[in-house]
Amino acid sequence: MFKVAIADSRLVRFDDKEVAFRYRKVHSKRLRTMSLSVFEFMHRFLQHVLPAGFMKVRYFGYLSPSFAMSREEPKARVELAHGFALQQDDASITPVVAPAPLCCRHCGARLRYRRTISSPHMRAPSERRTLMLAPASG
User: Number of C-alpha atoms within 13 angstroms, CB side, residue 2?
Assistant: First the structure.
């Protein structure tokens, strides 16, 4: 049903400190070699291991590229089998309303954006910026 994340033939060398393997970038025919620490290699490899009880199935059924029906036909078949139809009425979609603009507590004028404040943990204390909101003029 599926292949392993990396074939043994792609492993070039490995020892206690690093693993080297061959790979090919997408849309390229050139083979490349990458060396990773053992921990980084294991981290990347284990991202492809499924939990117990799960099975990886790719390109099977209606997700297969060679599937002949349009995407709407399986959807219609499911609706028909379960006795319901999805409502795609445009009137049922509610438009998104923009939030009310911020106003100054003292004078009531609309506030205007000046700059973004970065997190205090990301900058040195001398480089921290303060939020500057000023009433919009005119």
Answer: 13
Task: Give one DSSP letter per residue of 15-46, joined into a string.
Answer: -SSEEEEEEE-TT---EEEEEEEHHHHHHHHH
Which run of H or E residues covers position 112? Answer: strand 111-112
Residue 47 tokens read as: 């991202």
Instruction: With respect to residue 13, please indicate whether it lies within any of the assigned structural domains.
Output: yes
Which range marks the domain in which residue 15 is found? Answer: 8-46
Residue 16 lies in a domain: yes
- First-last CA distance in the chain: 67
Q: Which residues, in sequence order, are bridge partners of residue 110? A: 103
The Cβ of residue 135 has, within 10 Å, a number of other Cβ atoms equal to 13
SS3 call for 126? helix
pLDDT in tens, 79-138: 888 777 655 556 666 777 878 888 888 888 888 877 777 665 655 555 545 545 555 555
Spell out the residues 6+ positions from residue 104 whose beta carbon is closer than 8 angstroms to its own: 110, 111, 133, 135
Token output for 112 = 């205007």
Q: Distance (Å, rounded) from C-alpha 51 to C-alpha 60? A: 20
68 domain-assigned:
no
